[in-house]
Design brief:
Keywords: Membrane, Transmembrane, Transmembrane helix. Helices cover about 70% and strands about 0% of the residues. It is mostly helical. It has one domain. The protein starts with 5 loop residues before the first helix and ends in a 24-residue tail after the last helix.
Length: about 400
């Protein structure tokens, strides 16, 4: 069989390399695109986890501020230690990821405003005013974190509802409930008058049979029904969002750990709304509104803790999945590189091997000498003896007859 020459081997090598490149290059393009998409998802999840880490201490601060405002409004002593502890926790997380979530500058002036509110030692409507600034800024900071970390655009349904609840829904419900309770304290039963404009303490008919006239309550602020409506809407949005997220989550990620405190929160919202509505009509029951609002704060804090814990676990699982995808991509790239290098190495070895010569039957491996061509040499008796002929013909005498064998006739 004829061995290929060096030029033929080079051509075959180049053809193999071209075929391999035609296969590897499209795979490389697809792998690069998938790697870029996966890297973007990794960044997205990292931003979400930073936002969740910041939201925990910040919502704890919001709960403490709402509770302190309500206590001051109803004449109780605010828990200043709880507020300052929450401020210290936010300071710590702000030093860690404040820049990443865009909160460092927004947070810078807030501790001083909180100290001012605590030092005011006001009650009633003045307390509502004193705490309005810190509470509003804390609530706005949560919204800014949600927007800066892009968590409100999370592509998964379950994570979206968890994020919306933690950073937007529950803060709205907390602030609206606290405002409703604070405004309730100023509502009193209105003094009744008879038809002649005289005070009628019992509200019954006067001597002339005229019914007591005038409004039933006094001190009802126009913001009261607005706060009640905002609380109702926030509670309904949280309830519907989390329950719909439960129905669409693979593996039931939003489970009893969230649904149980959700039910307690929904019940607290309903109780406060009913109590506040009755108080607005009669002017009695401000203490009941206060108690219902405090129960709402506790329920909201428990739900916030459950939501943030579930969300962080979900994001951790997603980060692990993305990391495994990147490892698979790196493995595929490494295998493709090894295959390409192997083909090139085999081709290089084949090109450096010398072309084989004619086949040889000698043990030494050298080729047989070529057989000379030309007129045949005369055969002599000595040559026959040397060749192994034991009974050679005798050499003829010059000019004599040819020799005969024994018994051969002349």
């Amino acid at each position: 069989m004829t061995e290929p020459t060096g030029s033929v081997r080079t051509g075959r090598l180049m053809l193999a390399v071209a075929a391999l490149a035609a296969l590897v290059l499209p795979i490389g393009v697809v792998t690069s695109a998938h790697w870029s998409a996966t890297a973007a998802d990794v960044t997205f999840v990292s931003d979400e986890r930073d936002a969740v880490a910041y939201a925990g201490p910040l919502t704890t601060l919001l709960v403490a501020l709402v509770d302190a405002r309500q206590a001051a409004t109803f004449g109780r002593t605010p828990d200043a230690e709880a507020v300052r502890s929450a401020v210290a926790a936010v300071d710590d997380i702000n030093n860690q990821v404040g820049t990443d979530v865009g909160a460092r500058q927004r947070w810078a002036d807030l501790p001083a405003q909180i100290d001012t509110a605590l030092a005011s030692r006001t009650t009633g409507a003045a307390a509502m005013t004193a705490y309005a600034g810190p509470i509003g800024l804390t609530r706005a900071l949560l919204g800014a974190i949600a927007d800066g970390a892009r968590v409100v655009r999370d592509p998964t349904v379950d994570a979206y509802h968890l994020v919306h609840t933690a950073l937007l829904g529950l803060p709205d419900a907390l602030v609206s409930g606290g405002e409703l309770a604070g405004l309730a304290r100023a509502v009193r039963p209105a003094p009744r008058t008879d038809a002649d404009g005289q005070p009628d303490a019992d509200g019954q008919s006067d001597a002339d049979g005229q019914e007591a006239a005038g409004p039933a309550v006094t001190g009802l602020d126009d913001r009261y029904p607005v706060a009640a409506d905002r609380l109702t809407q926030a509670g309904a949005a949280i309830r519907d969002g989390l329950r719909s997220g439960t129905g669409t989550t693979t593996g039931d990620t939003i489970g009893l750990g969230v649904l149980t405190p959700l039910d307690a929160f929904v019940a607290a919202v309903d109780a406060l709304t009913r109590t506040a509505t009755a108080h607005a009509a009669t002017g009695t029951g401000a203490a009941a509104v206060d108690n219902a609002a405090r129960a709402l704060v506790r329920a909201a804090a428990a739900l916030e803790t459950a939501v943030l814990s579930t969300l962080d676990a979900m994001l951790a699982d997603r980060a692990g999945d993305l990391q495994r995808q990147q490892q698979i991509l790196l493995g595929a790239v490494a295998l493709a590189a090894v295959a390409l290098v192997g083909v090139l190495l085999l081709g290089w070895v084949g090109m450096r091997r010398p072309a084989p010569g004619p086949r040889s039957d000698h043990p030494g491996g050298h080729a047989d000498p070529p057989t000379p061509r030309g007129p045949a040499a005369p055969v002599r008796g000595g040559d026959l003896v040397a060749a192994g002929v034991t009974r050679p013909f005798p050499a003829p005498e010059p000019g004599g007859p040819l020799p005969r064998r024994a018994g051969e006739r002349p």
